[in-house]
Amino acid sequence: MIDSRHIEALGRLLGGKGLLTAPTDMASYETGARYDKGRAAFVARPASTQEASATVAYCVRNGIALVPQSGNTGLVSGSTPDASGSQGILSLDRLTAVFDLDRVNRTVTAGAGLRLSDVNQRLEQAGLFFPIDLGADPRLGGMIATNTGGSRFLRYGDVRRNTLGLTVVLADEAGTVLELGSGLRKNNTGVDWKQLFIGTSGAFGIVTECVLNLEPLPRQTATAFLVPSSPDRVPELLVAMEEALGSYLSAFEGMSRNAVSAALAHVPALRNPFQGGHVPDFVILAEICRTSPPRDGEQPLDAVLEEVLAGLWEREDAPLADAFIGPPHEMWALRHGLSEGVKHSGRLIAFDLSFRRGDIMRFLDHMKVEMPRRFENVTICDFGHIGDGGVHFNLVVPADDPRLADAGFEGALRAWVFQIAVEDFGGSYSAEHAIGRKNQVFYERYTPDEIRRLAAGLKAITSPGPLGSVTF
What is the pTM of this model? Predict the structure, then answer.
């Protein structure tokens, strides 16, 4: 518990709207997006960088641990407090006042509390967007803390690639504010310090503002579902599409039959697009786009995609068994409905893995054989970003399975999956969900001692106070 005098002091710093202490007010901040729940001593909601700095400085001076929280959409227990009741949450949800578009520079300076949907809605009139496509609707600060990628990573890259500047509050006794970078795309004057705060789960400092690279909105888009002749031909199909389409190719998303079937079963708004309703074993959602408006005499993108697919179809020993072009909004609706469908199929144990692109299908084939041998009655519902090597390896356990009452069951399952992914296939146990409490033990297991010592040293320099849910 936190002494009442600290609550009163924080209340004076933040005002009536800036500090929550009632259990009913804090409940949504204490509960994560995927099963995790903790207990907070308070929720601090600064409305400016200055208020964030004052709050952090007070907490560091008085030994109060803080967990930064953005949109609370993460899946690895990185944004919720533990069960002790001794940690405070520092929420970014009121850091929304700053929004400064530089149309010529194609950048926006924005508050870390703005949601991705809010940002892109405001940018739409200027014909621009922040090109990170996600099924969830996170806030910018959390996207930076976890270095999110999304479905169009293949064309636009991740948050790290699209961040030009940050304002960061350090967890030291002064609540030091750093202005790191600006709207410059080229600035080779030393260490690029902003990168230290991207993808490190908020443990090195709290982002309050950011300068983001923007991209022109696509003006023409075409999408198709591709059915490979066999799963092991998917890498070949990806390379062929890249060779034929170049920078037009913006997404190459893989979806298993189990994941698609779960979405169709549990998301009523979805329509089954497959002939006879028969979902293929594995299907690819491919998207191509142009940022220029249609020109007279220019071949429509649907025709471009159809021509490329016809060429693949006509190859001897073709890697493509079937394909059909359809409305982008309907095809993406199915892709974005996968998480919702899988979530309602039973108890979900989710993994966010990444591999070299040529190893993804080998890993999935291996797990389809080994999973029933090691953990029977566990259904694999995988989907993900084949174009960038990422896969959401979701495991569904029946809700009434007695193993779920065993605290060691999920831990054993996670350890086994990560061992196969990291040790046997050279992959990563966290493609874009960062670390969080769920992955802390695996950070310690798979990170070399030299790197851990370096990370701990940087944490001690930047934010020596107790900050975040991860121990570096």
Answer: 0.93
Question: How many angstroms separate the Cα of 426 from the Cα of each of 175, 363, 421, 441, 446?
Answer: 40, 10, 6, 18, 11
* Rg, the chain, Cα only: 23
Q: Which residues pair with 66 in a beta bridge?
A: 88, 467
CA–CA separation, 52 and 471 (whole Å): 22
Instruction: Give how far the C-alpha of residue 284 lies from the chain's centroid of Cα atoms, to the nearest Å.
Output: 20
Per-residue pLDDT tens digits for 190-240? 999 999 999 999 999 999 999 999 999 999 999 999 999 999 999 999 999
Q: Is 427 helix (H, G, I), strand (E, B) or coil?
A: coil
Three-state SS for 74? Answer: coil
What confidence tens digit (pLDDT) does each residue in 165-184 have? Answer: 999 999 999 999 999 989 99
Give the Cα separation of 192 and 282 in Å (integer). Answer: 41
Q: Within 10 Å of residue 316's Cβ, how many Cβ atoms?
A: 4
Phi, psi of 108 (to 5 degrees): -135, 135
Contact 78, 469 (CB under 8 A): yes
pLDDT band at 75 (very low <50, low <70, confident <90, very high): confident
